Amino acid sequence: MPPTQLYSVTREGNVFVFDPLTLATPTGWSSNFLQPFPGPALGGFGIDPSTSNLYLCGIPGSSGSYLYPVGAFLDGGGQYFLGGIANPATMPAETFLPEFLAIDGPGQRVFVADDRRMLTAWSTSTFAALTGSPYYPSNGPIKAQGVAYNAAANRVYVCCQNDAGQDQVVVYNAASAPMTPIAGSPFSVNLGLSQSSGAMVYDATNNRVLIACSLGLVALNGTTLAPIAGSPFATGGSDPRALVIDSVQSRVYVANFGSDSVAALALSTLAPIAGSPYAVGHSPGALAFSATVNRLYVACYGSNPGGIHLFNPTTAPMTQVAGSPFYSGSQFVRLAVGP
After folding, report:
1. Among the CATH numbers 2.60.40.10, 1.10.10.10, 2.120.10.30, 3.40.50.720, which is that of 237-339?
2. Neighbour count for residue 104 (Cβ, 10 Å)
């Protein structure tokens, strides 16, 4: 299996591969650049640790939306071949703006939230749509954005708005085929999605669904979907658009897109740690954390200053490593860490 790497997608549709400690070209490779398709990558991005495959979704130019699997990272003189994935899956014509994805590695599934009315589910072994996909909750939500997967309960969470403009979280029982909404779904939750986007993660330690949205950090009980006491929690900045869990320091980090900062919150209390929020470059919109090397990565959509900021979370307050930010000229939209 390849060593742990940092992967980032730019606005232009390029994927960069970095050494996770230095953000240099990985040892033994002639290039850290991959362009699997022409045009911008506007949507989800993630890596399946069980297969080492990358999954990207978005809209390349005006050619319609897509789900694109990239496998086996082989050095090909500057390009990385697809390693046996001959025919990337293409999403149905009625999808328009896939925003985020979540991966169930052991179950060989990837779930894609679309900004135009649906959730799609795909097999990562056949790259075909699963039974029941696409999914429409009963009251026809629009602006589906964040998606998260709870492996312990085999649930999929999606945040969206319905036709009346009400914010909701839809929860599916992913143990059935097709998937079915759990009792009480969709759940009404104030997220402010009409002002900004939403991003989700599932916190398995505390059985919580965490959502970064215009209101701050919304925290829901993972079973009942009721807001926990104190929700929404302040992030010390405006327009939160991304979040990631730090499994080593037991924190959650939130990117404040509108105020060029990153919040660092204790996972148990969701209170800010010393130094939070931390200043970064323009428009931070993507985060990743590597437990292998214990580093936090912050990718900025803006430039000059922008790029990828690399933090050492073991210091108090956290500090950026020498040379950070890296690649300030690029507009980064997503990050992922994995083999």
Report:
1. 2.120.10.30
2. 19
